Amino acid sequence: MAPGASRLYMHEIIHIVGAGAQGYMEMTKEWAATRPGRGGNRLVGTWASVGATGNWPEVVNLWELTLEDWYGMLDRSYIHREANAHLADWWSRALQYRSGGVDRMLVPAPWSPSLDDLLGRAVRGVLFLQEVSAVRAGTASDYLAAMEREWLPVLRRLGLEVVGAFEGLMTDTEVVVLWAAPGLDAYRGYLEHRLADPGFAAWRRRAREFVTGWRETLWHPAPGTPLSGV
Fold it and tell me: Most Cβ neighbours (<10 Å): which of 38, 46, 119, 124?
């Protein structure tokens, strides 16, 4: 973690039971609505998977928090869990929609925007493109720096905007980047560029200096969430 870093992010992949994606996202929005003024995690977004691009049914949540929020969450959710009946009730109700999941704690790159910055610039998306990359140990920061210089300007010209660019807090071999497409045309422009433009192949060759494997998935935002364009 970079010295002086003040933000962390919790990235949750939730395994959904049956057709429970919408119900779980509504529960997530309900929980997030109780947080303003009380400290703790801030919801960046909750998204349902676009099934043709990855596992389904799944939901992804992204939360912004501070180190103190993280310590508080550990205390409330684990160390003194029995004293927090409202958490137990929420977890119990959530079982009707989810069967488990995979979480990761993330550290933002210096150029990764905060939620306040995204809201201030009115960044919105109808589709969100997520890249999860396996990188050689210790090269996550270098990969993200190269992405800022060489790939971020290209995607911005195509109409996509970065929502977050992260390395793992508890691993040195993973990078997660999330982009917002404000409309289908922006995603179409990106995909056609990727399929036909030699510049994309050049970027992937450059990325392989750091990356050993990568995967993209598409996510659709829940209406009424901070960055939702639907």
Answer: 46
Q: Confirm whether 47 is domain-assigned.
A: yes
CA distances from 45 to 29, 41, 80, 102 (A): 9, 12, 27, 16
Average pLDDT over residues 22-36: 88
93 pLDDT tier (thresholds 50, 70, 90): confident
CA 33 to chain centre: 19
Q: Backbone phi, then psi, for 139, in 5-degree steps?
A: -105, 5
* Residue 1 domain-assigned (yes or no): no
Shared domain for 158 and 81, answered yes or no, is: no
For residue 178, give the 3-state DSSP assignment: strand
In contact, 129 and 178? CB cutoff 8 Å: yes
Q: How far, CA to CA in Å, does 208 sit from each of 28, 141, 214?
A: 37, 14, 10
> 189 with 199: CB under 8 angstroms?
no
Question: d(Cα 156, Cα 158) in Å, to the nearest integer?
Answer: 5
